[in-house]
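ENTRY TYPE: paired fold submission
RECORD: A
CONTENT: sequence, then structure tokens
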Amino acid sequence: MLNKLKKSLIILLSCIAINYSISAAELQARAKSSSQYFMDSSRILSSYYATSATISLNSGFAIDKNTGAQFTGTYVEFNEVGNPQVIRNFKNGSPDGKWYFFNESRGLTRVTNYSNGVKDGEEIEFNDNGISKSIKQYQNGLLNGASYDFDATGRLTSSITYVNNAKTGKELKYQNGVVSEERNYQNGSLNGEMKAYYPSGQVSTEGNYAYNLRNGEWTWKYPNGAIKLKENYVNGIINGTVVGYYQNGSKEREMNLSNGNGDFTQYYENGKVKVKGSIRNNKAYGNWTFYSQDGYVTSTQSFY
């Protein structure tokens, strides 16, 4: 019984979790295949390259063991069975050009471009099936530009723009090829409007962030657009009136909080009280009473 009551309270006090998924949108980013990059790496392996026999790596710099000079060229590392693990390109001892990373089966896992010792240009990570997992852009060692993530089938799952390693602008999430959520970032922090959608395109959740915290009114809706839950936030904490509704329009819950203190009541669809109790410091407090749909007390539980 105690476990059942605890489970009920978790459901009562948690923010309603919604399965986000939204309307169709035209996708501009396209996944890439590792095949072209694998062909490029194969051509490199059929040409001259250096190995650990002649080149030493020290703090990321490549040095010719025979002359002590900074190495310029291609350096390849192999595993114990002779398959390439990493192809690195250097200029004057520093990373410069494409680097190719392989798994134990010689499948490409990542291709990164370097310039003057730092990441610069496109970096692609691949799934085991050769479809790109992510595509990112770097400039002077920092994430700058559009960044995309994909599922194993090559469908877009997220897109965002970075400015000097910080998410900036609108981030879009996708499910099954359509937009499911959109958030806004400013200098790496969530700021502004957030919306999530059902596959039909109907908004399922909407609210605002300020410096990564929920602020103002947040609303959850049923697929038909009817209000499911309304909550008010101040710096990430629920404050004020909370009202929830069943799909038939009857009240599902109500709560009034001030500085983390107040009262909570939940109802059955027939309008009868289901649970009633007090909140202190944003947690259940005191004696909570549970009722049957006929209005009879079924149990009580104390929280301190």
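RECORD: B
CONTENT: sequence, then structure tokens
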Amino acid sequence: MNKKMNNVVAGVAKQSFAAVAAVALAFGLSACGDDSSSSTGPQDDPEKVEVSLTGVVFGSDYKTGELRWIDKDGKVSKKGVSFFQDSKVVVNGADLYVMERMGADNISLVDPEKLEAEGEKAVVWQASLDDGANPVDMVFDGENAWVALQNADSLVKISTVDGKVVKSVKTGKFAYEGETSPYVADIELNDGKLYVLMQRYTMDPETWATTYPKGLLAIYDASTGDLKDTVQLLKQNPTAMAFFDGAIYVASQGEYNDSYGTDADDKRGIEKVNLKDKKSELVVSGEKLGGGVYAFVADKGTAYAAVYKGYGDVPLAKIDLSAKKVEKVEGIADAEGFIAAKDGVVLVGDRSFEAEKAYLIKDGKANALEQPEGALAPYSVALF
């Protein structure tokens, strides 16, 4: 897909419903509560209707990208639909969104029920954002969605009916010295408030040397877009966040070392932000995790983190947020293919050369999904 399909509405009635029961059934697990991962949660439509798919896997070789889907038997589709090589998939109920990132800067709504039969014609609409906006995450509020733009000086609210921008909120004042963007990494919606995670780094255009100040959490009114508050974070280079038990947990990767990996120390990890008193504390250090956090999701009190030790060396950790206990998930070598967690189901993409597959995590172990020969290594995953 590309900008030639900008704002095309295919006349397909947009569905908006959850299919948690179908996912749990497909993987032989019982539902165990709400999902607090990045693009789902309390803002989802409460209606639950089964759909024919259980998840999607976006694959990339950094030249081309493809969207494949997972059926109820846990098999990855033989067919695929082409998208920009740097794309992220996001699910809201039974609606599937593909965010084509820096260089394409599009968002597409896809009807998952039509993927197998119609391929790229399953795209309901595609909306074009400003060049270089770089969409990285979405959260949903009724018939609208807030979109985090990593390289822009704003957030945008779009209509989920046709993808048109209905509101824009400037964030440029939070940019670090010499930058125009605060580099938003993640966005969450909770109790009418929009939580925006900002990395606020600055890069030398000639040497690419990067300076990371401490991250910042900005809080907006989700209806009006008005800024309500900010919270200074403890650590540098935050990557993702999740709500649990009245607090928000923020994972950080921290600065890179001389080998372009991250160290196992207390300069990074998972911090717990008490929103009432605007105080933050490090609850799981990078020393305990084994490095900085590249990707992070939580399903109630259980979190999963892709621990970035170095390129290609990104094991998966399971964290009990209440007990602050960390366990390694065996069988995952490179979790740069990202993680999805929903109601006890955990899906992770392993990009390691030996694997290049999506895995279901069950009983602390990784079980590979059956996929066709020639499928690209996972780059982003999502569950319905």
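NOTES ON RECORD B: Residues 174-329 form a domain with the Neuraminidase fold (CATH 2.120.10.30). Residues 2-46 have pLDDT under 50 and may be disordered.
STATUS: closed
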